[in-house]
Design goal:
The chain is an all-alpha fold. The protein is built from six helices and two strands; from the N terminus they run E-H-H-H-E-H-H-H. A two-stranded antiparallel ribbon has the order 1-2.
């Protein structure tokens, strides 16, 4: 079943804000929260992530009906990619290695910002590329 395309974009905006605060403060705990949010989004889909639940419960009722839907698989894959980068950032920060933590968190922030500001989901595009390559290989 397709999902409201505004939900993942809202989640990306919240994610970008959280990751920006992580970069400014170096907060391991806040990055751990974001890593958990990515984990829940990758495991259950974006509609079951904390930001997806917030969108569905507090934001979507205040908006008109959706005019655009999208398949849930690409955003879910994007959450897994975000999980990878946030996890790497978390390890970097937790071990006191500043630059790997900043680099991985910055990469996740850049991807979230692109989605939030321009509707361009890097993880979704990567999903489509992987699908094309694996279908050709079969």
């Amino acid at each position: 079943m397709d999902i409201d395309a505004r939900g993942p974009r809202f989640g990306a905006a919240v994610t970008a804000a959280v990751l920006a605060v992580v970069l400014v403060t170096g907060s391991v705990w806040l990055l751990a929260w974001q890593t958990l949010a990515f984990l829940l989004g990758a495991a259950g889909g974006v509609s079951r992530s904390p930001y997806g639940l917030l969108f569905r419960g507090a934001v979507r009722p205040r908006l008109g009906p959706p005019t655009e839907y999208e398949a849930p698989e690409p955003p879910r894959f994007a959450q897994a990619v975000g999980l990878l980068f946030a996890g790497l950032g978390l390890v970097g920060y937790a071990l006191g290695l500043g630059w790997p933590g900043v680099a991985a968190t910055g990469a996740a922030l850049a991807a979230a910002f692109l989605n939030a500001a321009f509707g361009y989901c890097l993880g979704c595009e990567l999903y489509l590329l992987v699908r094309r390559v694996t279908v050709r290989a079969e």
